[in-house]
Write a structure and sequence with these properties.
The chain has 384 residues and is an alpha/beta fold. It is 48% helix and 16% strand.
Length: 384
């Protein structure tokens, strides 16, 4: 009936997707007042009025081995979600990242006659090239965040729009280091290192012990250092604090923050970052970093077999070359990570030239993403 709210289905599977989803919801509502959003989302989307039918944390699983462990529950959630969305008949479905969950969901919804958009390209440019042939069957349009992704889809005949990255839109043109340090009550003379071990519980279980031991080595070698650890939930904080206890590291000069990742990155001199969106946040703040990651051995082996580019960290992928160190799996020992962090912290060439290179990357990605994304899908949401 004319005048009824226009329903939009959405699924976000982790904290970064929750941010992107909320950002897009706000932009869409400016253009089409009265939209209603349902599906799976997190606290930022719920603050925009989103109705989440399942907890987002259920989807926050990464890696082949880890997914297999949760596979029956994920399949059951997707089956129930398909049934509810088909019954609700949203005007449009938007899958925000989470490709392992969302692409299969989008395929079923598209077959049922519901328009589907996928927001954030799967990393097929890095190690999943075989997926391109199946994506056209899942989506009516792909919204990509990075400029090198657009021609890949266009050449494969998949409707695509490059929208830039919303984190670049939110980035500051000026240096926020002093203000962030003041906000966090950090002495100006201290060297500050941000530790970003990930946002998922599964990540913290792999990363936290290594990050804590790395911090212990750094503190032993670098006088007047202070560590900041922003974590997104009580659960991830508990995992990290357990790692501190197990390592006997209670005397570390360390502040655990609930959220405040942006402030921690702005305040730091260098960051140790788990590979993922946080590496981009650090690059947009023009900060030196060391990228690392640990996962199940089988998952890492399978990913290495499908690798198509020599980089894993987003700053290096966007640059098309190594601009910051990457240290993964067996090489990611506390000794190696501590040395790499200290090298980045104390190298005057890195501290002079790297921020300039990262700023060029930031300007490339600043495209008013929410406006571009909403314009790309607006034709499907205009009132009848």
């Amino acid at each position: 009936m004319k005048g009824d709210p226009i329903l939009v289905g959405m699924v976000a599977g982790e904290a970064s997707g929750d941010f992107l989803g909320a950002h897009l919801m706000a932009a869409l509502r400016e253009r089409v007042p009265g939209l209603s959003f349902v599906g799976i989302g997190g606290p930022k989307m719920e603050a925009q009025g989103f109705e989440s039918w399942f907890p987002m944390e259920k989807l926050a699983v990464r890696g082949y081995v880890e997914v297999l462990r949760h596979f029956p529950e994920l399949v059951a959630i997707r089956r129930r979600l398909v049934r509810r969305l088909v019954e609700a008949r949203p005007r449009l479905f938007i899958g925000v990242d989470a490709p392992d969950f969302n692409l299969g969901l989008e395929r079923k919804l598209k077959r049922s006659g519901i328009r589907t958009v996928h927001y954030v390209s799967p990393s097929l440019w890095a190690w999943r090239g075989g997926r391109m042939s199946s994506i056209a069957a899942c989506v009516d349009k792909m919204l990509v965040l990075f400029p090198f992704e657009e021609p890949l889809y266009r050449d494969a005949g998949v409707p695509v729009a490059y929208v830039g990255h919303p984190l670049a839109d939110l980035s500051s043109d000026g240096d926020e280091s002093a203000a962030a340090r003041e906000q966090l009550k950090l002495p100006a003379a201290r060297k500050v290192i941000a530790l970003l071990p990930g946002s998922r519980q599964s990540e913290l279980r792999y990363m936290a012990p290594c990050f804590v031991r790395t911090a212990m080595l750094i503190a032993a070698r670098q006088p007047s250092v202070h560590f900041l650890v922003p974590l997104v939930s009580r659960e991830t904080r508990a995992i990290f604090e357990e790692a501190v206890y197990e390592a006997g590291a209670s005397e570390l000069p360390l502040t655990v923050l609930f959220g405040h990742a942006r402030e921690a990155i702005a305040a730091c001199d260098v960051a140790l970052v788990a590979s993922g969106t946080a590496t981009l946040e650090t690059a947009l703040a023009r900060k030196p970093m060391v990228i690392t990651y640990k996962m199940a051995t089988l998952t890492a082996w399978l990913m290495s077999r499908m690798a198509r580019v020599p980089w894993a960290g987003l700053p290096n992928i966007i640059a098309g070359e190594f601009v910051v160190p990457e240290i993964f799996q067996r090489d990611a020992t506390p000794e190696n990570l501590a040395q790499a962090v200290l090298n980045s912290l104390n190298d005057p060439v890195v501290n002079r030239k790297l921020p300039e290179r990262l700023d060029r990357m930031r300007l490339l990605l600043r495209k008013n993403t929410a406006a571009r994304a909403s314009e790309a899908i607006l034709p499907w949401l205009k009132p009848a």
